[in-house]
Amino acid sequence: MGGGSTDENGLGGAFAAELTGRDAQRAVIDAALAGIATTGASVILCGDPGTGRTALLGAAEAQARRAGLRVLRMTGAEAESGLPFAALHQVLWPLLDEAEGLPEPQRCALESALGVREGVPPQGFAVAGAALTLLAHAAARRPLVVLLDDLQWADPSSVAVFGYVQRHLAALPVVAIAATRRTGTVTGPDGAAAGPAEHDVTTAETGCLAGEVIDLPPLEVPQAEQLLRTLHPSLPEGVRRRVLRAAAGNPLALHELPEQVRGLAADRAESLASPGRSLEPPEPPELPELFEALPLGERLGRLYEDRLRALSEAARDLLLVAALGDASTRHRTVLRNLAAQA
Q: Around Cβ 37, how many Cβ atoms within 10 Å?
């Protein structure tokens, strides 16, 4: 893969490969960073797991650091989603020494929220105002880039603060870039649907967040083929076609499925050649057989787990019967009945 090579933005070859097909999204981020000295901006990356959200944040961080900008980063964790202001703590902790310059009420509110001052955490608006003031003070000395990854796992208190801050960035040298999983329809300022269905870049709000929403759709076939050839140049053509079909344009799947195919094929070959078997050379496993037995792996499994959680109980029953059944007439009748209920 030529890890030592770089693209026109100075990203290493492996890093650049992860961003195949994301030129439009990178252009929006590049424009926001280029204008940071005069105009603040908020960008929201919205997509399924494995579509390149974290890679885009990594590219933005690399670009910001090369430009001498200060970077603050948060990564949401499901285990901390019930802890008030846990995500905000990650973002603002590096700036806490600068809180001395805040007005006393704001400093107390912020320190209480972040757990460095005893007392009941204040209401969200007090914390939001303090967070915005602290970011403004820090950005006056050096422009700030705030990166919020896996925002779907951030605690609601922090998300409310992030949303308030994002709505007040225009006059500050601050760019906030958030990445979140697609969980439903994104609505624009007029209430109309925007984003996932159209794969557009639309000024919109998603929940409490405000900013320019960038959808990360599956890769087009030529882009998927390019990425697969870059990541796995020696993949046999038959396997390549099956991987492209199974991955459905998901960059993570294009990265991981070939490795799992190789691993499963090696296991099958070793099993066929084990002692006690016929001395005849073992037949290689057929591709369809391999793909039917292929495990998803942890990261791809999370992608489908999220989708399953969003389905109704009837729809999940339908999928279970489809997975366990066969092509018999009785099986098709059960599927039709379940589909009518879903």
A: 8
Measured N-to-C along each axis, helices 53-66 and 23-34 cross at an angle, to the nearest 10 degrees, of: 30
CA 5 and chain centroid, separation: 25
Is this model's pTM higher than 0.85 or not? no
Tokens, residue 282: 């073992």
- Spatial contact of 217 and 47, defined as CB atoms under 8 Å apart: yes
| Residues 132-185: tens digit of each pLDDT | 999 999 999 999 999 999 999 999 999 999 999 999 999 999 999 999 987 543
Q: Which two tokens stand for residue 182?
A: 């697609």
Beta strands, E only, 114-207: 144-149, 174-181, 186-187, 193-194, 201-206
CB 127 within 8 A of CB 110: yes
Tally of CB atoms within 10 A around 235: 18
Question: How confident is the model over 196-240, as pLDDT tens digits?
Answer: 333 333 444 455 677 899 999 999 999 999 999 999 998 888 888
Q: What distances in angstroms separate CA 207 from CA 77, 91, 127, 189, one per listed residue? A: 18, 20, 19, 12
Contact 144, 135 (CB under 8 A): yes
Whether the Cβ atoms of residue 304 and residue 283 lie closer than 8 Å to each other: no
Which domains are assigned to the chain?
A: 13-215 (3.40.50.300), 221-295 (no CATH)
